[in-house]
Amino acid sequence: METTSGKGAGDIPSAAQHAQVSYAIFRVGRLHRMFAGRLLSELGLHPRQAVVMRNLWERGALRQVDLGELVGSDAATMTRTVRRLERAGLVRRVPSPTDKRSVIVEPAAASLALRRKVEAARSDLEHRLTDGLGEAARAEMLAVLERLERNLVHQVGNAADLVCGGDPCD
User: Fold this and answer.
1) For residues 167 and 50, what is the distance between their CA atoms, to the nearest angstrom?
2) pLDDT of 28-82, one tens digit each?
3) Cβ neighbours around 41 below 10 Å, total
4) Cβ contacts of 21-26, under 8 Å, gap ≥ 24
5) What region holds the HTH marR-type domain (predicted)?
6) Taking Cα atoms as reference points, which of 25, 51, 55 lies closest to residue 40?
7) Using CA atoms, how far apart are residues 81 and 68, in angstroms rounded to an integer?
8) Are 91 and 82 in contact (CB under 8 A)?
9) DSSP letters of the chain?
């Protein structure tokens, strides 16, 4: 692959010369997903499962269909994800008292210890990601990223298509 500079993380393939910001976001996003996946794997979770658990921890019991919509998952994938979490003892599925067709998913008590570990892993990732940045640089970076997000949301027209329960969709 031909690049525009020497060796290093900042090398930009010649094909990406006219899309340097997009390419940088792609590289950082890929590394972020890989590292987050590694940290979550050490806790026995897949990133999608962590998004499901975060929504349950923050929102409490939800209908499975609503949970799927929150995380941007189709019904079959959500069923498999919830089944795996249930086998791991992290969630409970109970019939809806008001709708016989619906299932309610709730975090199991055993998941609370995992929640603290997941939050610690997210803090660890944040610290490693922003290592060497002062408060001003972090604030500026966050403002720029929020602006980029707004630009894309404006272009797409529907943020729900881009965001799954507050986390990027896989």
Assistant:
1) 10
2) 999 999 999 999 999 999 999 999 999 999 999 999 999 999 998 899 999 999 9
3) 11
4) 21/148, 25/148
5) 18-150
6) 51
7) 10
8) yes
9) --BSSSSSTT--BGGGGGGHHHHHHHHHHHHHHHHHHHHHHHTT--HHHHHHHHHHHHH-SEEHHHHHHHHT--HHHHHHHHHHHHHTTSEEEEE-SS-TT-EEEEE-TTHHHHHHHHHHHHHHHHHHHTTT--HHHHHHHHHHHHHHHHHHHHHHS-GGGTEETTEE--
The answer to whether the beta carbons of residues 47 and 40 sit under 8 Å apart is yes
Give me 24's structure tokens: 């940088």
Tokens found for residue 21: 């910001």
Location of structure tokens 């999608």: 48
Q: Specify the length of the chain in residues.
A: 170
Q: Is the pTM higher than 0.90?
A: no
Supply angle C-alpha 32, 163, 154, rounded to 5. Answer: 110
- In single-letter form, the type of residue at position 72 comes to G
Domains in the chain (CATH in brackets) are 20-126 (1.10.10.10)
